[in-house]
Q: What sequence folds into this?
């Protein structure tokens, strides 16, 4: 059987492989290479060694964007997951209307990042100005919380769905047995439900973590990095360095920033997976 | 074992293909552009195949900066193609994304042949791509060499539109308040009128100035355009046109005019941080304010179908800040839109582009479209008069012997500097910062940004 | 029984709370809808929350203007073409590829698999410039063949999800089909495909949500001289010198959002199940 299939590899694997090379492997290798070069439009590429990487750390917008992104990732991951889990708990109590609630909470997830950003820009600016506060684009703190609100609105529904599925898989007789043994509801929650949905927690934290860290569209349309790049996140900072600051030196720096950013993402993903997986085993 | 071999062979083959594709890029450009040209040709001239007789070999790809004029450019391009058979593609970048779009398009095989930069600072980034325009027909048609952007002996950019800004004034409301535009000849006059309107605000039902929105859609009116005035007068006094260290001689006057704006506006100064450019415009449209600092480009937003004003309602006054010979001060007039031709384009495309540019500013059709449809004043010999009432105001003032204020903001050291001044102004208006912070951002910020530029 | 009574009361309170929360949840969309029916001048930051009244109501004017001025229908068409073709291609190629790499032990399969997993965490910014350049050289820059780029960049997630599922499939049926004289292609389409259907749906949903809403990739890759997708078109309501055509922009946001909402309400069961399946596999 295996041999028979193997003969057909050009049919099964080749199309994907070619597209994969065009769409990922080659650009990735080339991009890594370019991060060591000085160039404008690939016509005049000069090898520049590590100088691009040195420049990254002299560019304070990048370090600022890094801390901004880090803070954003932590806050949004925690908020989204806690709230999504709480709503999931409520929706698994068997209330009437559960389906309608679930439908509504999930809906924002289907709206694209750019559109989402504009919707919230209009809404939040209206609110802020009604309260006599400065607009989103003038205050990085409002920009930060604006992004958090937006992220929650978009992601909670999605994570909630996953948590609901996880909670529904908790065997009811287990909970019944615990209740008969006199466990309180908070004991049931923390000793039974939470450990049992740990796989869902792993998935959800992984998803929110990477989504937040790589956030781009929403950042672009909600605040566009205003004021003065103070609300700019890493992904947007790279794009901005690469495309908006013309001048030959910036392309290489942008590409080098992208490599550094990529390494961050790898490290975070590995750490996170390792951390939650080890927790899962204990549970 | 066999699998391993197959894998390595395929991977190697695929990689080689990838490499070929990647490196062969520049070599195959010629053929692919030719292909693109022929397809573009067949689509854009489908309507006028018979007019293709003198078809030149080149084609034009114009990356336009001004979204408002997108439609007019598309029409003009179509007309040109009908007349000459040369395909012209016009693409307009979304607002605030000109640089990003230009960068991404320049990297493509079918790059723009005509693009624009905003002055010396913008030129510095793109000068490796700019074709030397000296000696071309269009350069010969310029009314003054001051509208050319030069780098050494090379003429790398040509200003194609002159714009003016000042205080857009609702004459009807001003008369209701008991004044005419002739009553305002200096800063003191302006202050008197504005403060009188504010004093009678409730009785009149409108304010002097529309709100000075301080977000990104509007703050350039103060951090860039208004800030131009103290810079201009300082340059005039010192007889220079650029500097690495601004002294801030006239910053007190800058403060006076800004104070006047924020204290006599439709809202409390502290609320300004919550206003946008759209708010400011809508207040003016809703007749809630007499004055609105903006430029000739606002004309189409204020007059026309569905807009409340006619030409008779509006005019533009100079921004008086109480410096120099105010009796002879004109509007702030200049350009920050320079055309550049892409040096990397093929010979044919460059020629086609130069012909197109020349046609736009010299032919009947072109000049008419630029004046009437786009509302531009163009600095070329054959220019047609624009119906734009603000442009007319500028012309009248110049004819009356007034000196226009030059656009010196193209010499501001960087965007960072503007942002610094902008945030300080916002904080000052909101009462959370002092004027000293504005002065620091203005003077010290200038020195440090200029030093950074010199180091880079 | 006392407990259930108390439970019921808590449930009632919670229901009310959740209803309020849901209304708040839907408010942003509602607000855009309201403002899209108002005249441009009535949309300032201070008036954004007011309902349209006799004076400011303009009916569908903004919708008509937005659709005509921005050539919104062609943007809609391009977005649709790109989404449908990319998702179809991803489903077909990646399911085949995934089946192959699980059934055939070898370096090719292993290598592909790990590369796919790796590609899932690479941020787009890493390859944005070189990918755009490659697509430009290969002329993969129009809505009709950009799906190859999407297949390449989206293959990771799809292959990963499909392999996860194929691994749990019993091999016996396929072997039986083989003995009956089917070749691998027939086996795949007649036997494997029907079993893969649930995973196909979840992958389709995830990929659709990505492609339909994607902004940066088409902006950089597509030939912007001729083609604009919806997220790109929305950007064009902002003019130079800070002017935003708020009213038509909101109208177009509504046109973008409404079909998605309708589609979602029609097949929400699949979508929600798909998300769950996708997450559990992922």
A:
């Amino acid at each position: 059987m295996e041999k028979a299939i193997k003969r057909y590899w050009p049919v099964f694997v080749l199309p994907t492989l070619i597209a994969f090379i065009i769409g990922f492997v080659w650009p990735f290798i080339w991009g890594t290479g370019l991060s060591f070069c000085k160039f404008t439009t690939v016509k005049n590429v000069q090898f520049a060694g590590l100088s691009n990487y040195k420049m990254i750390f002299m560019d304070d917008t990048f370090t600022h964007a890094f801390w901004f992104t880090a803070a954003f990732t932590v806050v949004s991951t925690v908020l989204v997951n806690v709230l999504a889990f709480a709503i999931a708990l409520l929706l698994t109590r068997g209330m009437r209307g559960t389906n309608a609630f679930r439908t509504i909470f999930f809906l924002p997830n289907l709206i694209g990042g750019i559109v989402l950003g504009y919707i919230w820009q209009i809404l939040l600016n209206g609110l802020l100005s009604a309260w006599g506060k400065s607009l989103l684009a003038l205050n990085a703190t409002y920009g930060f919380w604006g992004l958090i609100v937006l992220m929650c609105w978009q992601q909670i529904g999605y994570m909630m769905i996953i948590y609901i599925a996880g909670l529904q898989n908790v065997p009811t007789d287990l909970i019944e047995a615990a209740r008969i043994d006199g466990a309180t509801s908070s004991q049931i929650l923390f000793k039974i439900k939470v450990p049992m949905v740990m796989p869902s927690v792993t998935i959800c934290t992984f998803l929110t973590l990477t989504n937040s860290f790589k956030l781009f569209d929403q950042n672009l349309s909600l605040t566009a990095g205003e004021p003065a790049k103070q609300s700019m996140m890493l992904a947007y900072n790279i794009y901005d360095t690469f495309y908006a600051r013309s001048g030959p030196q910036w392309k290489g720096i942008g590409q080098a920033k992208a490599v550094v950013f990529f390494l961050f993402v790898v490290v975070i993903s590995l750490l996170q997976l390792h951390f939650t997986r080890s927790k899962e085993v204990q549970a | 074992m066999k699998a391993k071999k197959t894998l390595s062979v395929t991977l190697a083959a695929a990689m080689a293909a990838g490499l070929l594709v990647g490196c062969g890029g520049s070599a195959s450009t010629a053929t692919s552009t030719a292909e693109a040209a022929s397809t573009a040709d067949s689509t854009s001239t489908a309507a006028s195949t018979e007019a293709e007789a003198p078809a030149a070999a080149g084609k034009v790809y114009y990356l336009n900066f001004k979204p408002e004029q997108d439609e007019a450019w598309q029409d003009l391009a179509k007309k040109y193609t009908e007349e000459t058979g040369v395909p012209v593609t016009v693409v307009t970048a979304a607002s605030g994304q000109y640089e990003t779009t230009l960068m991404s398009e320049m990297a493509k095989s079918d790059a723009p042949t005509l693009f624009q930069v905003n002055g010396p600072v913008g030129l510095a980034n793109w000068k490796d791509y700019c074709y030397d325009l000296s000696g071309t027909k269009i350069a010969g048609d310029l009314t003054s060499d001051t509208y050319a952007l030069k780098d050494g002996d090379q003429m790398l950019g040509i200003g194609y539109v002159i714009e003016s800004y000042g205080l857009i004034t609702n004459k009807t409301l001003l008369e209701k308040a008991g004044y005419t535009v002739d009553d305002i000849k200096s800063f003191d006059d302006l202050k008197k009128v504005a403060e009188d309107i504010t004093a009678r605000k409730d009785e009149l039902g409108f304010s002097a100035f529309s709100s000075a929105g301080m977000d990104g859609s509007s703050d350039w009116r103060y951090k860039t355009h208004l800030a131009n005035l103290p810079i201009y007068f300082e340059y005039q006094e010192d007889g220079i046109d650029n500097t690495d260290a601004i002294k801030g001689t006239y910053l007190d006057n800058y403060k006076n005019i800004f104070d006047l704006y924020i204290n006599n506006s439709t809202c409390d100064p502290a609320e300004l941080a919550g206003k946008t450019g759209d708010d400011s415009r809508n207040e003016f449209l809703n007749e809630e304010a007499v004055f609105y600092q903006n430029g000739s480009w606002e004309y189409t937003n204020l007059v026309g179908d569905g807009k409340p004003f006619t030409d008779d309602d509006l005019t533009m006054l100079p921004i008086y800040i109480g410096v120099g010979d105010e009796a002879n001060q004109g509007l702030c007039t200049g350009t920050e839109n320079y055309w550049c031709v892409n040096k990397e384009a093929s010979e044919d495309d460059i020629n086609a582009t130069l012909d197109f540019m020349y046609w736009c500013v010299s032919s009947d059709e072109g000049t008419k479209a630029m004046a009437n449809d786009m509302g531009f004043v163009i600095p070329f010999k054959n220019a047609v008069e624009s119906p734009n009432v603000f442009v007319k105001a500028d012309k009248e003032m110049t004819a009356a012997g007034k000196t226009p204020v030059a656009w010196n903001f193209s010499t501001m050291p960087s965007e960072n500097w503007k942002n610094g001044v902008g945030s300080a102004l916002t904080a000052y208006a909101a009462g959370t910062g002092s004027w000293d912070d504005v002065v620091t951002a203005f003077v010290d910020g200038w020195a440090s940004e200029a030093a950074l530029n010199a180091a880079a | 029984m006392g407990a259930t009574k108390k439970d019921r009361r808590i449930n009632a309170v919670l229901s009310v709370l959740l209803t309020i929360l849901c209304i708040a949840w839907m408010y942003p969309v509602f607000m855009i809808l309201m403002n899209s029916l108002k005249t441009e001048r009535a949309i300032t930051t201070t008036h954004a929350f007011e309902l349209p009244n006799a004076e400011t109501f303009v009916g569908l004017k903004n919708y008509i203007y937005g659709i005509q001025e921005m050539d919104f229908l062609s943007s809609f068409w391009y977005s649709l073409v790109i989404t449908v073709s990319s998702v179809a291609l991803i489903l077909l190629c990646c399911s085949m590829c995934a089946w192959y790499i699980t059934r055939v032990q070898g370096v090719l399969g292993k290598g592909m698999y790990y590369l796919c997993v790796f590609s899932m965490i690479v941020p787009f910014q890493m390859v944005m410039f070189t990918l755009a350049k490659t697509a430009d050289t290969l002329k993969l820059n129009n809505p009709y063949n950009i799906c190859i780029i999407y297949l390449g960049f989206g293959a990771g997630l799809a292959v990963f999800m499909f392999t996860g599922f194929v691994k749990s499939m019993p091999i016996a049926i396929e072997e039986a089909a083989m003995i009956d004289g089917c070749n691998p292609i027939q086996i795949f389409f007649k036997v494997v495909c029907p079993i893969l259907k649930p995973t196909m749906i979840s992958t389709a949903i995830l990929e659709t949500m990505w492609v339909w809403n994607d902004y940066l990739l088409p902006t950089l890759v597509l030939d912007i001289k001729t083609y604009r997708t919806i997220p790109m078109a929305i950007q064009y309501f902002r003019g130079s010198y800070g002017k935003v055509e708020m009213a038509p922009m909101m109208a177009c946001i509504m046109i973008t959002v409404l079909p998605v909402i309708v589609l979602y309400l029609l097949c929400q069961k699949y979508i929600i199940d798909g998300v769950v399946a996708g997450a559990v596999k992922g």
